[in-house]
Design brief:
By secondary structure, this protein is an alpha+beta fold. Among the domains are: 187 residues, Beta-Lactamase, CATH 3.30.450.20; 148 residues, Histidine kinase-like ATPase, C-terminal domain (Heat Shock Protein 90), CATH 3.30.565. It has nine helices and twelve strands. Strand 1 and strand 2 form a beta hairpin. Helix 7 packs across helix 8.
Length: 518
C-alpha cells in the first residue's frame, strides 16, 4: 500500500459517517487523564521526596551535633584526662565507652551505621567492626573530601545498590557526612576540626511517604479530571446527537442525490442506446428501401433476357443428338459450354428471385407457432443436403413447449437460412448445435457452429445488405439482412457472437413468448 493510500485510510476515520465523537472523546480523555495523573503523581512525589530529604538532612545535622557533643563530654574529654591519648584500636576500654555512646544514639535516632574518620580519612570507629582501620584516600570519595574541608554533604542510597564502602543497601538510606569539632563547655570550636562523622539514616519511611504522596496525587488528579470528563461528556453527548442528526440528514440527502444522479445517468444511457439502435434501424431501413426499389427495377429488366437465354440454352441441349460436329473436340466441349450457360443463367434467375423477394414488402400472417416443432421441420427439410453427410447436427430442445406469435413461413425462412449458413461455414467433421429455451418472457433459438468464425471487425456489419464473408459466387449478402428485417417485424432481436476466425459462430434469435389474451 502506498503512503498516499495509508494517509487516505487513516484520515477516513474523520469522515462524517465514521466519526464517533463520544468514542474518540472517551478514548482521548482516558489517555490524557492517565498521562496527566502519572505526571502529576511523579511531580508531587519528587516534591515530597525533596522536602523529606531536606528535613532528613537537617535532622542529620542535629543528630551529628548531638553525637559530637556527647562524644566530647562523655568520651574524648574524660579519656584524654585519664589516658592522655586516644587509641580505639588497641584500648578496649576506650572503644567500649565510645561504642556505648554511639549505640545509644543509633537506637534513639533510628540510625543503621555510623563511621568516625580522622583527618587522614582513616576509620577510627564503626559499628561494623570489620571497617575499623580502613583508610579512604583523598579523591576516592567526594563527599568525605567535602566534609574533611568543613562542608557537610548528603546522598540518598537506593535499596539494592552498593554504598561507598561496597556494602549492599537493603533499605533506602540517607548517607550524610559532617565535620567533627572540638567542644569546650558545650560550645563547638569551628576553627578546630578533629575529623568527620558519617551516619546512615533509615529512609524506609521516606519511601512509604513518597509512594503515599504519589498515590494521593494520582487519585486526586484522576478524580478531578474524571469529574471534568463526565461533565464534558454530557455536553458533548448533546452536541454529538445534534451533529449525528445533521450528519444523517446530509448523508440521506447525498444518497438521494447520488441515487437520482444514477437514475438520470441510467435513463440517459438507455435513451442514448435506444437512439443508436433507432439510428441503425433507420439507416438499415433506408438502405433496404433504396436497395429494394433498385432491385425491383433491375430484376424485372434482367429477368426476361435471362429467361430467353435459358430457353435457348435448353433448346440447344435438346438438339445435341442431331448436330453434326466437325471434330471430336467440338463434340466434347460444346455440350459443356451449353450446360454452363444453362446452369449460370438459372443461378442468375435465382439471385434475381431473391432480389424480388427482398424488394417485396409481404404482409406477415401472425399466429401461434410451436418453436420446437418449427425448428424440427426445418431440420428435417435440410436433412437431405449432401453436406450433412460429413457434419453432425445436435438438437437441444427446451423441455417445455414454447409458443411464439409470428408468421410461420417467414420464421421458417429465417431458421432455414441460419442452418444453411452454418452448413456453409462448417468444414468436414464439424458440428452444428441448435438450442431452444425460454428466458423470462422470451423464447431463444441459438444456432452455434464450429466453423470458420467471424472477425471482430465484421460482426457489426454482418446484417448489412450485400455484406458477406463467403467466397465470391457463393452468396449475395442478402440472407441475413432479410432475416434481420423479419425478426424486427416480429418484435424480436437477432445477434451474433464469435471468438474470431476459425473459432466458430453463434447466432441468437430472441422472440416474445405468446401470451394468450382472455
Amino acid at each position: 500500500m502506498s503512503n498516499k493510500q495509508k494517509n487516505k485510510s487513516w484520515f477516513s476515520i474523520f469522515h462524517p459517517e465514521k466519526f464517533h465523537l463520544i468514542l474518540y472523546y472517551s478514548i482521548t480523555s482516558f489517555i490524557v487523564i492517565g498521562i496527566v495523573s502519572f505526571v502529576v503523581g511523579e511531580v508531587f512525589s519528587r516534591i515530597e521526596k525533596s522536602d523529606l530529604l531536606e528535613r532528613s538532612e537537617k535532622y542529620a545535622g542535629y543528630i551529628v551535633n548531638h553525637i559530637n557533643l556527647e562524644m566530647y563530654d562523655e568520651f574524648f574529654g574524660p579519656a584524654m584526662n585519664e589516658y592522655g591519648y586516644i587509641n580505639l584500636k588497641n584500648n578496649r576500654d576506650q572503644f567500649k565507652c565510645l561504642e556505648k555512646i554511639v549505640k545509644s544514639n543509633i537506637d534513639d535516632f533510628n540510625l543503621k551505621k555510623v563511621y568516625l574518620f580522622d583527618m587522614n580519612g582513616q576509620i577510627i570507629y564503626s559499628n561494623i567492626s570489620g571497617q575499623i582501620g580502613y583508610v579512604v584516600e583523598r579523591g576516592r570519595n567526594s563527599h568525605l573530601d567535602s566534609a574533611l574541608n568543613g562542608v557537610p554533604t548528603s546522598e540518598l542510597q537506593d535499596a539494592g545498590k552498593l554504598d561507598s564502602k561496597g556494602e549492599l543497601v537493603e533499605n533506602s538510606l540517607l548517607e550524610s557526612y559532617y565535620p567533627v569539632y572540638e567542644y569546650s563547655e558545650g560550645v563547638a570550636n569551628r576553627e578546630k576540626q578533629t575529623g568527620v562523622i558519617e551516619i546512615y539514616q533509615n529512609m524506609k519511611e521516606l519511601d512509604i511517604q513518597i509512594a503515599s504522596a504519589h498515590k494521593k496525587a494520582v487519585i486526586i488528579t484522576g478524580s478531578s479530571m474524571g469529574l471534568l470528563f463526565l461533565i464534558l461528556l454530557l455536553i458533548i453527548k448533546k452536541g454529538s446527537n445534534v451533529i449525528r442528526l445533521k450528519t444523517d440528514q446530509l448523508v440521506e440527502a447525498r444518497d438521494n442525490m447520488e441515487e437520482k444522479v444514477e437514475e438520470r445517468a441510467q435513463e440517459i444511457k438507455q435513451a442514448y442506446e435506444r437512439l443508436q439502435e433507432t439510428q441503425k434501424r433507420l439507416s438499415r431501413s433506408e438502405k433496404l428501401a433504396g436497395i429494394g426499389t433498385l432491385a425491383s427495377g433491375v430484376a424485372h429488366e434482367i429477368n426476361n433476357p435471362l429467361a430467353s437465354v435459358a430457353s435457348c440454352a435448353e433448346g440447344l441441349l435438346n438438339r445435341m443428338d442431331s448436330v453434326d460436329f466437325k471434330s471430336k473436340d467440338d463434340e466434347e466441349v460444346f455440350p459443356d459450354y451449353l450446360k454452363t450457360i444453362y446452369d449460370e443463367t438459372y443461378r442468375c434467375k435465382a439471385i434475381i428471385s431473391k432480389l424480388l423477394d427482398f424488394s417485396r414488402r409481404q404482409v406477415p400472417v401472425f399466429g401461434e407457432v410451436d418453436m420446437n416443432a418449427l425448428v424440427a421441420n426445418v431440420v428435417k427439410l435440410v436433412g437431405r443436403q449432401k453436406e450433412l453427410e460429413k457434419l453432425s447436427i445436435e438438437l437441444n430442445y427446451s423441455s417445455e413447449s414454447v409458443i411464439i406469435y409470428g408468421d410461420v413461413n417467414q420464421l421458417q425462412q429465417v431458421f432455414l437460412n441460419m442452418i444453411l449458413n452454418a452448413i456453409d461455414a462448417t468444414a468436414d467433421n464439424g458440428k452444428i448445435k441448435i438450442t431452444t429455451k425460454g428466458v423470462d418472457s422470451n423464447a431463444q433459438i441459438i444456432f452455434k457452429d464450429t466453423g470458420c468464425g467471424i472477425a471482430p471487425d465484421n460482426q457489426d456489419k454482418i446484417f448489412e445488405p450485400f455484406f458477406t464473408t463467403k467466397s465470391p459466387g457463393k452468396g449475395t449478402g442478402l440472407g441475413l439482412s432479410i432475416c434481420y428485417g423479419i425478426i424486427e417485424e416480429h418484435k424480436g432481436k437477432i445477434s451474433v457472437s464469435s471468438n474470431g476466425i476459425g473459432k466458430g459462430s453463434a447466432f441468437t434469435i430472441s422472440l416474445p413468448v405468446y401470451v394468450k389474451r382472455v
